Amino acid sequence: MTRKLLGKPIADEIKAQNVKRAAAFAENTGVRPTLCVIRVGEREDDVAYEQSIARAAAGAGVNLTTRLLAADCKQEELTAAIEAASGDEKIHGILLFRPLQGHLDEKAALGKIASSKDVDGVTESQMARLYEAKRPADGFFLPCTAESVLQILRYYEIPLAGRKAVVIGRSTVIGKPVSLLLLAHDATVTIAHSRTENLPQICRDADILVCAAGMTVESDEGGLRGGVGREYLSEGQTVIDVGIHSDDESNLFGDVDECAAADLAAAYTPVPGGVGSVTTQLLLRHVIDAADLHSGTPPMPERLE
Predict the structure, then answer these.
(1) Given 54, 95, 106, 203, which residue has the most CB atoms within 10 angstroms?
(2) Hey, what domains does the chain have and what are their CATH numbers?
(3) What is the pLDDT of residues 127-162, one digit of tens each?
């Protein structure tokens, strides 16, 4: 029988920890852990994600502040906003929504985020630590979405050591980080992408398939559906769907055709209800960790092993 790997029980556990830790921090310091979201423009997915973070933050006792810039803002304006947040002692974590508009230099922008406030693990120093599989105690934050994938696999006791894992997607946001984390857990990892030859066959051969490439196709009924269909899947697989899309009626769906996954896979994450809820709570945990670090309290360490 196919298992749905629901994110809610994991997110609930992390949330319970976050609520206690945020309350203790506020009691000890007189301030609340604070996350600054920097958003450029009004992309629908960014706005929806910000609203989701706001709801979760309010429930966990974490303060949220937003720095909103126009879609056509100049690099200098973005740099100023990031530097202001990095230098503000009342802000403990910074989240820059990506991808940025094409006229902006994303690498330069990320380089302006203070490493101690990089709660999504996107700066070069944080990524270097992930690349080296190091876990120092001085504020190492894993990329939240990639960490969420590993949390789900761990919670549902999906074996990783020696397993063949295929990741569709090579972005620095999800594809590369999750590949490094799987490798750190002794999986044999293949990174695939839009130019990969024989992609369906490579995916069918995987024990664990992580889909994070924004794949959609036209459905038979019209509109879009997840582009990872039956030709990509095989019996016995674990399928982790990181994609998120919205149809004309604002219904959410992922990269994977959920009907096909329910028929073929041994286990899969639904969209919504899978990776996203865990990601948000992990982000808030990182903010509280960063706040503890700022106040001199050792943060709860991340776990790579």
Answers:
(1) 95
(2) 29-115 (3.40.50.10860), 145-275 (3.40.50.720)
(3) 888 887 655 445 689 999 999 999 999 999 999 999
